[in-house]
Specification:
It is a multi-pass membrane protein. The protein is of the alpha+beta class. The chain contains ten helices and ten strands. The protein folds into three domains: 122 residues, no CATH class; 136 residues, no CATH class; 60 residues, no CATH class.
């Protein structure tokens, strides 16, 4: 039986069971069938031992790969055992023994190293892809506040929040969801301020999500809200690290996912939707006045049309005669009833 005809196990937790580079290549190609962006980079060390590097072209930083991985392997390895020594490769790495770890590492942008004669592998952090710079979010422009915003990188977004809350009480939990494509979810909260029962409830709801994948924070919000049929918002989304940090300091929980520039805050009440980032940068009396003004406008916008219809259609006797005559005259050529007009 030829090597290409060998049946290799595909169990996700299967250990690496061969030290032959050709067999390892076939096993990897079985997992990533028809993946034109999976690159193989064979090398021969000074010890005459062959190694193979595998990575996804669009997820890997070529400069880091060449300068911190390939060059040290070719120039500094005098004994094979040094390959798995973290002091040789000038970037973070870890030894793995299962195919599941290898596949997850590759899909996260890491480079995997196989060495002839070794039934283990080395995952090397060479992540690097095109992403936009940190800038102020267009939808949440502020005058007196900071002018930075979240981007589509959860690690950098967490770093932005760390800058605003440099405290050991800021806790970060990492979870994984998605049965077909993995998405990492992060919970951020202050341990002595946030309600621990609420933290556990949010964590339980996220862990109970059963779906192929979650690509946006809005999808995650729909999965975790109390009532999935209500049209009213139950979570608060923002792209501003200062606004999110204020909510965390108030005892709320921030939820981040990778590839999303928005961060979700839970739990959220009605009053919280009438606050703006600028409220924290002005005198509290002025901020309170504007909050009352916003809330009053909301109440008026909700009830004024109903009051107008009720008075014009059913209680017109309470309207002064001159005003009622003016309203009636203006509606002579209107083909709709007051209900449809409103």
């Amino acid at each position: 039986m030829s090597l290409n005809e060998k049946e290799l196990k595909t169990t996700t937790n299967e250990l690496i069971q061969t030290n032959n580079l050709q067999e390892l290549k076939i096993r990897l190609e079985q997992s990533f069938d028809i993946c034109a962006d999976l690159v193989e980079h064979p090398l021969q060390l000074k010890t005459r031992t062959n190694v193979s590097l595998y990575y996804f072209e669009g997820l890997t930083d070529g400069i880091v790969l060449k300068g911190n991985v390939i060059m040290p392997l070719l120039q500094e390895v005098n004994e094979d055992i040094q390959v798995f020594n973290s002091t040789i490769i000038a970037t973070s790495n870890k030894i793995v023994y299962t195919w599941n770890e290898i596949k997850e590492g590759l899909l996260e942008g890491q480079c995997v190293l196989f060495m002839e004669g070794e039934m283990r592998s080395l995952l090397i952090n060479t992540k690097g892809w095109a992403e936009r710079a940190i800038q102020e979010p267009i939808s949440e422009v502020t005058i007196k506040g900071s002018h930075d915003g979240f981007i589509e990188n959860a690690t950098k977004n967490i770093g932005l929040i760390r800058r605003y809350i440099p405290s050991t009480e800021l806790k970060i939990k990492k979870m994984r969801i998605g049965e077909r494509a993995t998405t990492f979810v992060y919970l951020l909260y202050l341990v002595n301020i946030a309600n621990e029962e609420v933290v556990q409830e949010v964590e339980m709801r996220i862990n109970n999500i059963q779906t192929d994948t979650v690509l946006g924070i809005g999808e995650l919000s729909n999965f975790t809200k109390d009532n999935r049929w209500t049209p009213f918002p139950q979570t608060y989304l923002s792209e501003r690290p200062d606004a999110i940090s204020h909510h965390i300091l108030d005892g709320k929980i921030a939820v981040l996912i990778d590839r999303s520039p928005s961060v979700m805050i839970v739990p959220m009440n009605l009053i919280g939707f009438f606050q703006t980032p600028d409220d924290y940068n002005v005198h509290w009396l002025i901020a309170s006045f504007f909050r009352v003004l916003r809330f009053s406008g909301f109440i008026i916008a909700m009830f004024l049309p109903a009051i107008y219809i009720a008075i014009v259609s059913f209680h017109f006797e309470i309207i002064p005669l001159d005003l009622y005559t003016s309203i009636a005259t203006s509606r002579i050529k209107v083909p709709f009833s007051p209900l449809l007009e409103a």
